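go over whats below:
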Amino acid sequence: MANEKKPNALAQYGPIVAPVVGVLLAVIFIAGAMMTNKLGEGQIQLQGSITKVRNQLESSTPDPGEGNIHLPDSVARSLDPGKKDDWKAEDRGAEGLLQLPIAWDIIMDAADVGEFDRYDESPKDGFWTENEFQRSPHFGQPDPEGDFTKWDRNGDGQISREEHADPPIGVDAAFAKKDTNGDKVLTAKDGEITQQEEDSWDRYPYDGKIDFQEFVDRYKPHDERDLGPVQNVEAKADLANMVIVVTWDNPDVADLPEDICFYIKRRAPETVERRRTEYGKKVLEYNKQHREWETRFKSWWSSSSDADSQKTNKQVEPDEDKAKQKYASAKSDPEPQPPEEVTEWETVTPNPVGGNSYNDTTFDTDVTYTYAVFMATMKNPKRGINVGDKNPAGYYTWPKATQANGHPVIVRNRIELGYLSFADPQATITLTKWHAIPNGDGSPVWYRVRVTEKVDPGDTLGGNYRLSDLNSRSVQVTDVSGTVVNPGELLPSDISIDFTTGFAFVTKTPKGFLLNSRELGDFELPPATKGPIADPTMPSSTENALEIRCLAMKSGDKNATFELTRWHQVGDDWVRVVMTVATTKGKDFGSEVKLSSPGSDVKVYDAAGNMLGSGDLKKYADETVDLTAGTYEGLEGRSFSVGGDKVDLFGTLYK
């Protein structure tokens, strides 16, 4: 508001010898005119008063009705010192009173403080309380102007200067009023809003344009999240519990959000074709579910609205996309989302998970998996973080996943053979392997399935068994804790489990049961395998340990065939080097391998599980991999020993 300060009236003048009364009357007139302009009058009114005074002072004609100013020429005459005591009014022409040297000092604020500051009473804090609003001209006006809550858009119990500058005339009308070029967005460059408003109202994804919804939400607080790449991702197989454990550290961000969550993906090129077949089935199921959902939505859309029984939901919300969101929320019936298209990378977690670890049980055995983790949030990312659009589940994700340190993970599902009994010439042998069975929500749970085989000499051991085959052979199922469960309640009717071993039964020997394989040679199954299966050992860390597995054993434990595996990193590439080597008790086995010429007993695979040929290996010409295992020390019970370390005959020794 305008605020004129007291003027310095008659500041100085020359030697005035005559009518001081005229001067005093002029000053009184000026002061009177200014007193009528009380503190709080507008600048225009004050300027009008000053102009009127100026016109009177510049006039040579006295106006008794406006202050009764006498003898204006006597004032002008007094400015001429002349000779002492020789002043005569009739010798001077009638001149304006403003020729008297008066110093004007009218001081005002730079601008009219306006309505907001006028009613922002003590304390002047830049906000209107509801009491201050009630003393303003808006109180008592029709809705929405007279409604305090319509001005207080962010609901904090007060009206800010920004909220006051945008009166509640109805959001549609307010937006249309600002959208001067009719392009359905507001921008600072078009002069429709200020740059500060554009920066404040623009919401993710930040495009410098304020659309209608952003305008509606312009006074709502920005609930935004800082995102970043996760740290130190590790993936390791826990064979005793048949899970792959993925761990990671939180992102290195300034303000770690409370709703922090993570998506986990894995790369498995070997499974692409199988997943494509599954994808086709999922698409058919999705189409069916979506048609049913559309039917439910259309029925609701055409029905009477709960908010206004005189209208249908379609009349209340004619925009179909918005209506679908409203229906999904009101009826807790989310719209089905299409299945993820098949690539080498697949999402392990349909919805993100909390914490800093995840147990994956959905893997295929004997498949090479590379894991990656990235952060997700349902809140808008902070300005400057470009993470793309929300995914179908409604989450923003950090654009680049963090891959696991170290080599990919493989979970092997080797068949464990066991002695049971022998009645010449027939032998009874058990075959045990892991099998995943879906639980109520479709996620797999791993169980050990054991079948009992009665074989004659020459019979092939094992096969691909359906449920009827399993039942005829006597089947036992245990969970990861070793508890026996009822297979009839778990195994689906269309189950098929591959128990193919590649071995044929030969005969009983003094030290066990002799089996034969064309690929690996004889395998002598020791009587000690009649006991319980020992849990496999685990590597002490995710460092690149040498894996040692026994493939064949004959002459008791005098001769054995082993498989040695080590991952090797070259730059950003990982290769898996596998050697098959036969040895005898008391001798060292394994050796260093040059990748440029690995030899016929060595195979090299890339991280996707593809075997590399000699041409592929040329780029690794200078690389050497250590596959030295140590001394084979024989069999004790059902455990073999290498270099002082012992492991179950069907487990994997890590060195």
